Amino acid sequence: MKKNNLIRKAKQTTAGLLASAMILTGAPLGNMTVQAAGLLPNDEIKKGQNNKYVSTAGNFVYGSSDSTAFVFGPSSGHQGTNGGATDTYTFNFAGITDASSRENVSRGYYDNNDVGSNATTASGQPTIKSAYSGNWWHGYYAFGKPYRIGTDVQNKTGGSPYEATSPLDPIVRTWDNVSSGSTNDDPNNPLFTAGGKIKGLHGNGTYYNGQVLPLDNGQSGAARQEVQLRQEVKPSDDDQYIVVQYTAYNPGSSTVDFMVGNETDTMITTQDDVPIFVTPHEAGGDFEGVHFQNSRGGQYGLTIFDIYTSGKGAGITKRATNDPSENRVWVGSWSTTPRTDGVNPVNPLTHTAWVFSQSRSGFVNPGDSAGAFSTYFNLLPGETKVATFILSIKPSVYYVNNGADGSATSAGTPGFMGNPVGSIADAVAKIRANGAKKAYIYLQSDTTMNGTVTIPAGTDITIQTADFSALPAGQNYGVGYNHNNTPPIKTDGPATIKRANNFTGPLFKVENAGSALSFRDVTVDGNKAYFAQTTVPTKPTAPIIEASAGTVSLKAGSTFTNAYVDDAAVGSNTPSVIEVKDTAVLDLNSPGGVATVTGNESIKNGPAIKISSSENPRLNGNVNITNNSVLVDDPANTKASNVTLGKKPFLVKKNNEVDSATTIGVTLSENLPTATGMGTALIDFEERPTTGLAN
Fold it and tell me: pTM score > 0.85 for this model?
């Protein structure tokens, strides 16, 4: 495809903008396995590359998504408190503190102040941690099966153990009140017989991200089993997550049972005794995995760390029937589970022994914590399968629930999942007070706004629907295990932000350089049904968002609809949804989904989005801005009015792509053609050469 072919010309009337590009493919999931002759490496993410996925500094490879960064390389100096860790090359995750740090060579793994002294050696600790101190996530593999699989893992006794004789994970023989505050749910008296079978994923030598590893069970003759394994750590295509992917191929003539996973001594920012929530395993939920949230305050307090085993792009390829393969996740206590300092611990095992375990669902606060994620492959002869884990760290996540007040401080700092605040304004005020540069607002319920929220200077805030809508009543967040108390996952669709009756000003203002406001997986409703009534005398005179500096981003899953503006000022052309002026930037950025602006109305000549800024608006992914209208003279006479484009065209940044389904209605307000045959560019590409064609 020639990129120059996407530079459209327009006459002096309304024009439609249609842009097309390729979408990056995601992981193969569902009921599909592959017969292959062997695996190939993924050379795009190995050391030496500097591309859209990774950067190289010394012997280390770095990459990042919107909020999470990773490093891959030699693990010397990063074993730390992971006793017994033997993986010589592995990875670690860190939260991004400032969006600008993604431009440095570590892609945000290190802050801009720290990257110069650490990137080439990876010796320093990141600011927002997922592992304790300087630890990394160490890899392990073994040939064999787990004790329980599927929904059977929830059983304390009985059930249908999958491998009762020699499983790779410990068999919990009693469930006791080992930790104070537990409800007789602590794992205790484990039986573990697989220690000699479990090996470090990498041995002596040099390795790289995306490499294919030939692994075997150390036996010979008919007893020998082999697996080719490719480990990949990379950003997700939608820029939301980090992907850890294991592709396994069985080159032999007999069925192979094989497990691979990663484990560490966990810490979320500076909190060891972090509250942890485990979802039901293999129960068919929209999201399965584990959710950590720091419950303390401060600049990086309330940080969350999610590991998805299913949903959000995570999962494992399976045969259509009779396939026991599965992804797994475990959380427990460091340095042993059960805790040696608990009440009557029996046969405590080092935390690394639990790498292939699957936790029972519920709430867990083991005190000083450890965690793991792993996959179990059941591989027929010649079969290839892919296991995908999705991981995300988000700093300063404030939960909002309409009617809450953040007063349940025994649960955690106001804004914690178990102690939400009551409004977006409350959350922004706390973000401002804590000095966070990057923060998130998670809506557990619909919310109504009756005032203007201004984004603090130098702060990047994303508003989105929460993962968990609420928490069980009576939950004790102190140290202990409660496997009968699982937080409900929000499944009733995206949360809605609605303009309150009689409030006529902007809902949001972005007016400081370095400030950013993003929307993802949320609906913003301008309450047209109320304001369009003839009996309502006072109408909105401002759009949903006014931006004069900084950035406004519409990301995947965001929908702006039902905005209604009736600005009586002659010639004001007030938009109904967003006004972008002065030096502000509009970022339509929705890879992996669609951002939609539709069904909005202006009574006095305004479009849905008005752009008069001196900066290029940006375009990436799938965007739909159509079916917005403006009233002309009387209610029977309306016309389309979607985007008024001012001084500069849309810009597709380096490494970005525009989906073929993108549809944007455009009206030109400046740079109009002045003679027959002239035209005005509506879209341009950052990498377009000044002459010739761009491929």
Answer: yes
